[in-house]
C-alpha cells in the first residue's frame, strides 16, 4: 500500500504498519517522503535500540560493522560498554576483532573502556590490545595505545599466559611487533612457557616455518627483537 492512498491513512494506522514491517519494508516507507520519514522516525529509533539476537544493539552493530547504527545509539545516550559481561564481549572488543578502526574510534570517543579485561570461552581473559595484536592489526594497536590502552598487559587463558608481544610473535605479525616495540613494551618478559618473544621467534624461525614468506617474517621479527633487547 503506497502512494497517495497510503499517505491519506490516519497516522495511527501508518505507525502500526511501520511497527509491524520488517527492516526492508520499513526502509522503503522511510524513503517515500520526508513527511512519512518524520512520522516513522520513532519506530526506527525503537527498532534500533532493541536487542538483536539476544545481544544489546551496540554490541551487535559493532560486531557487524554498522557504523551508522553505532553512531545513532551513542548520540542517543547508549554507553559503549552496555551489556558487557563475561559472556557478552563489549562493543569495543567486537570492533577490534573485526579490525574496524572507524567504529573503534567512535566507541573510544564516547567513553569505551580501553583497558577492560574481557572474557570469552574461545579466547579467555584478554584486553582489547591483546586481541588487536593477535588479529595482526598494527594500526588499531597504535590507535588503542594513543587513547591510554595498556599494550603490555598479560592475557591469562588457563594453561597459557603471555603479553600482546608474545601473541604477535606467535602469529607472525611483524607490523604489530614493530608497533609494540615502538611503544616500548617489555621485550624480555617470559610467557607461561618460560619463553621470551625473541626465543619464540627464534624457535619458530628454526622449526615452525615451512613457507618462504613465513621464514622471512620470522627472520624480520628476530632482527627487530634482537635490536630491541640490545637496547634494554
Describe, in short, the structure shown:
The protein has 232 residues and is mainly alpha-helical.
Structure, described:
With 232 residues, the protein is mostly helical. It contains 14 helices and four strands. The chain has helices spanning 3-7, 11-19, 23-30, 34-49, 57-63, 67-75, 91-97, 101-109, 128-135, 138-146, 164-170, 174-182, 197-208, 212-230, and strands spanning 118-120, 124-126, 155-157, 160-162. The strands form two sheets. A two-stranded antiparallel ribbon has the order 1-2. Strands 3-4 form a two-stranded antiparallel sheet. A hairpin with a 3-residue loop joins β1 (118-120) and β2 (124-126). α10 packs parallel to α12 (174-182). The longest helix has 19 residues, at 212-230. It is elongated and about 75 Å long. The mean pLDDT is 82. It comes from Discina gigas. Keywords: ANK repeat, Repeat. InterPro entries: Ankyrin_rpt, Ankyrin_rpt-contain_sf. This is Ankyrin. ANK repeats lie at residues 53-85, 87-119, 160-192.
Amino acid at each position: 500500500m503506497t502512494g497517495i492512498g497510503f499517505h491519506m491513512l490516519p497516522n495511527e494506522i501508518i505507525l502500526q504498519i511501520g511497527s509491524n514491517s520488517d527492516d526492508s519494508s520499513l526502509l522503503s516507507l522511510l524513503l517515500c517522503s520526508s513527511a512519512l520519514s518524520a512520522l516513522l522516525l520513532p519506530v526506527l529509533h525503537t527498532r534500533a535500540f532493541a536487542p538483536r539476537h539476544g545481544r544489546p544493539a551496540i554490541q551487535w552493530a559493532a560486531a557487524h560493522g554498522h557504523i551508522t547504527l553505532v553512531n545513532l545509539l551513542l548520540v542517543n545516550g547508549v554507553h559503549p560498554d552496555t551489556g558487557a559481561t563475561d559472556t557478552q564481549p563489549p562493543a569495543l572488543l567486537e570492533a577490534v576483532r573485526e579490525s574496524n578502526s572507524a567504529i573503534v574510534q567512535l566507541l573510544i570517543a564516547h567513553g569505551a573502556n580501553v583497558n577492560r579485561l574481557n572474557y570469552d570461552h574461545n579466547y579467555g581473559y584478554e584486553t582489547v590490545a591483546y586481541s588487536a595484536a593477535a588479529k595482526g592489526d598494527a594500526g588499531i594497536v597504535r590507535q588503542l595505545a594513543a587513547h591510554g590502552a595498556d599494550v603490555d598487559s598479560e592475557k591469562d587463558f588457563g594453561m597459557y599466559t603471555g603479553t600482546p608481544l608474545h601473541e604477535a610473535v606467535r602469529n607472525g605479525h611483524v607490523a604489530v611487533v614493530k608497533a609494540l616495540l615502538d611503544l616500548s613494551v617489555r621485550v624480555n618478559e617470559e610467557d607461561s612457557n618460560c619463553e621470551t618473544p625473541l626465543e619464540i621467534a627464534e624457535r619458530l624461525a628454526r622449526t615452525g616455518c615451512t613457507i618462504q614468506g613465513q621464514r622471512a617474517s620470522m627472520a624480520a621479527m628476530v632482527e627487530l627483537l634482537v635490536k630491541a633487547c640490545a637496547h634494554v
